[in-house]
Amino acid sequence: MPAAETSASLPAMQWRMLRGAVLSTWRSSLQFRTVAITVVLSGLAVMVIGTYMSTVIAGNLFNSRKDQVEAEHARATLLAQDYFASALAADEAGRVDFDELSRDVRNRILSSTTSPGSTGFAMLRAPGQSTQFTMPSTVSRGFESSILSRDLRSVVRQDTGRVYLQSVELPEGTPGLIAGSLVTVPSAGGYEFYLIFDLGETQRTLDSVQQTLVIGLASLVLLIGGVTWIVVRLVVAPVRLAAAASERLAAGQLEERIPERGEDVIATLARSFNGMADSLQQKITRLAEVSRMQQRFVSDVSHELRTPLTTIRLAGDVLYDQRADFSPTTARTAELLHTQVQRFELLLADLLEISRYDAGAVEIELEPTNLVRLAEEVAETMSPIAEEHGSDITVVAPGGHVEAELDPRRIRRILRNLLGNAVEHGEGRPIVVTVDSNETAIGLTVRDHGVGMSEAQLARVFDRFWRADPSRKRTIGGTGLGLAIAQEDAALHGGQLDAWSRPGEGTCFRLTLPRHQGEPLGESPVELPEDIDLPEGGETDA
Q: Which of 17, 133, 319, 436 is deepest in the core (most CB within 10 A)?
């Protein structure tokens, strides 16, 4: 990249970083938002008030100066008119020197002008006159006749007895005001009489007032911002303390409390929060104690039932082995006893396993395991049961055989539970097991095309002892804890077990596990599609 482009991109990058920091502070800081909003709104209000005050002050200064100039010019006009009349009346012979008369009037008017800023004088003969005598026009030094507009000269010549004013810009660049009127000189006709006044001093006064106004109003905005920051800090600090205490309480620190000071609304908030925390701690402690009692009860009952169950199983095995010598009714009773004792043993084993998870006493035994081989082995063991229900189990491995750090016993149990669920609800249709992997994870899906589930049923599919259809009879001896234990086994590996289902289209469970324990799971290598089509290669039939 050229150096010019690099230097041009740096300000844009710095601007983006600054904007990002400001937006982040705006979203995260209530104090910053409150102060910023207060400063902006007060700044807008102060700007409106300042503009109005500046306009009013400027108008008052200009009107005051205009009245002063108008009065000064009217006085000068009267002075010139009286002087001309008296001078010509005194000269009975009519031998008036109009040049000298013009100079005298100019000097008399300039010397008598008391208004500050008077910088010029002009007395110009009105055109189109035929008189006995002519007095030459006179203009003082510094008076530029070019600043006289045609409109002003036109209204002055109308001789209405008024003083006309016009704002102009003087050659020095300062604002000025021209006052004009018509003066009648006996025997010489009408003359346009102009006085020009420099308003620079008035402008400087206005600038000083406006500067003082800006500084004062800006200081007021800063003061408002400072006061708001202090007030908001006093209010936000307890709120921030309450937020931090809430986070620690949510994290499990049930003894966390907020200091109570005073009797204001913040103190009321602290008392309410502490009361809520006390109540929550008592309830959670009581529920935890009840949960421990339940877990211990389940564990103790499961252990205590093993001894009589073992005796019953031994007796039942003896009866089951001799069922050929019994009558048909007694033989059938021996078979039912044998089946139910086996199911009872499975239920006890699952209850003991789920109680270990509840107590946090589960240990994982990891070893390099080929998930494809493991899936093939479980599918092979489940094939006879699947064939009894009219289903075929197919294992698809498009990504090849990949090893990962797993607990083979627990993963085998997950697969048995998922395949048993698929066989149970597969309605005799094909069941597909897909295994794949990526750089961070391995994944497996079990897809059936059976009755499926609704969204409400799918939300509870991992609940303990829950059945989508309570009237539906279990045909392969499930205990109602299989999917709950499978989900716990997946979480123990740092993975996850997901489910997809639609009524009439079947169900698909997806197991995603990290390739190495402790590493991020990342994206699952297998998806939850509506239909899984078998690829051309990489498949084995169990």
A: 436
**Measuring CA to CA, how many Å separate 209 from each of 54, 115, 214?**
8, 22, 9
* Interacting residues of 281 by C-beta distance below 8 A, sequence separation 6+: 254, 255
Non-local (6+) Cβ contacts of 348 within 8 A are: 302, 305, 306, 309
The helix/strand/coil state of 420 is helix
Rounded to whole angstroms, what are the CA distances from 106 to 85, 99, 113? 15, 11, 11
Domain locations along the chain: 12-253, 266-357, 364-541
Q: Domain 364-541 adopts which CATH fold? A: Heat Shock Protein 90 (3.30.565)
Output the pTM of the full model: 0.47
**Cβ neighbours of residue 158 closer than 8 Å, sequence gap 6 or more:** 182
CA distances from 376 to 367, 373, 381, 417 (A): 18, 5, 9, 15
CATH of domain 266-357: 1.10.287.130
Whose CA is closest to 537, among 416, 364, 395? 395
Q: Lowest mean pLDDT: which of 51-60, 93-102, 373-382, 490-499?
A: 93-102
Residue indicated by tokens 């086996």:
342
- Continuous segment of H or E residues that includes residue 192: strand 189-198
Rounded Cα distance between 116 and 201, Å, is 9
CATH fourth-level superfamily of 12-253: PAS domain (3.30.450.20)
Alpha carbon separation from 263 to 98, 242, 268, 322 (Å, rounded): 95, 16, 7, 84
Q: Of 175, 191, 57, 59, which Cα lies nearest the Cα of 121?
A: 191
AA identity, residue 191: Y
CA distance 523 to 505: 25
Q: pLDDT tens digit string along 410-455?
A: 888 888 888 888 888 888 888 889 888 888 888 888 998 888 888 8
Nearest to 500 by CA among 437, 447, 431: 447
Instruction: Please check whether residue 442 is in contact with residue 515, taking contact to mean a CB–CB distance below 8 angstroms.
Output: yes
